[in-house]
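Chain X:
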Amino acid sequence: MRKRLVNPLSLVNMRDLLDAAEKGCYAVGAYSVANMECIRGVIEAVEACRAPAIIQIAESRLAHSPLYLIAPMMLAAARRASVPVAVHLDHGKTLPCIREALELGFTSVMCDGSALPFGENLALTAEVARMAAPYGAAVEAEVGRVGKTEEGGNAEGMIASVDDCARMDEIGVDALAVGIGNAHGIYTAAPNLRYDVLEHIRGRLRAHPVLHGGSGLTDEQFRRVISLGMRKINIATDIFMAQAGACDGTDIFANIRSSVGAVHAVVERYARLFGSEGKA
């Protein structure tokens, strides 16, 4: 990544990115990162195609990439980017972790209470919304449950209830991950996405719908969900697989270059597919 002075306008709130995407009828890519190479590859790709972006890390990944180490890299990359970048905690499940992300400077956090009974999920998300308010940070929630887990387990997905989406929206969240038959990790069969859920909530919510489990969907599926109002699409597995596949041999510096390049290629393709190219 070339040397650049800090851009005071580049680290942005996810809320603003999604509002702009709604007006422009495109989606913003939310790209999961795990190390410096991931971060560099994402930023260089979105700069190359002039696309706004979200860089994120899930709480479950912090055992490998501790927040106190990776957060400063994510924030520094966003502040030096030439395009708008939000820094997001994905799948935050515990209040201490969410609080730490806010204190470090993340501009949005996700409260994932999807494994809880809906009433408990609602109460936890309301608490996170109160916690995030003094920081001005955006909040994402989840209704229904995205299949599998962020670490690739076998938890079954659950289709979101339209009424539950409306009740969660009343809290004032900015983004809502909606279970429509999507899943994290690698799809073992073509997913049957429930577009009807998106059709029913279209125009009823203040929050912007979010698609988790984007890796492995077809281009047509992406175009369809974007046309139905999806404004944030998460990509993780494709990034991590490309990065792992690019590393070969014992030359660590060659592996760094290859890893950055592999991530760049994945992210640039998605930014164009999501319609965010040229929107920065």
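Chain Y:
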Amino acid sequence: MNVAIHEKRREIREPAEGPVLVNFSNPQPMEILGQLVDVSPGGFRMAHANQSLQSGQLVGFSHGLAIGTARVMWNRIVDHRVETGFRVVTTR
């Protein structure tokens, strides 16, 4: 059976790699270091080991392609690691 898959993404994602640092201060100051998985014009995905990021949360971020503020869009656990998708809100 051949089933067509409808792509819902609005932007093309490009594979990427390198360290990503996200930080936030609510409810307490925290930094999470992870690895960049992919990027798009409006966001990025990172893999890490921390389950404390919540959908809707604003974080500061820094990776090899941009620095700024992003909103956590989703989290999922894949092979004993966490993947988080971010939507970039502002860049510096």
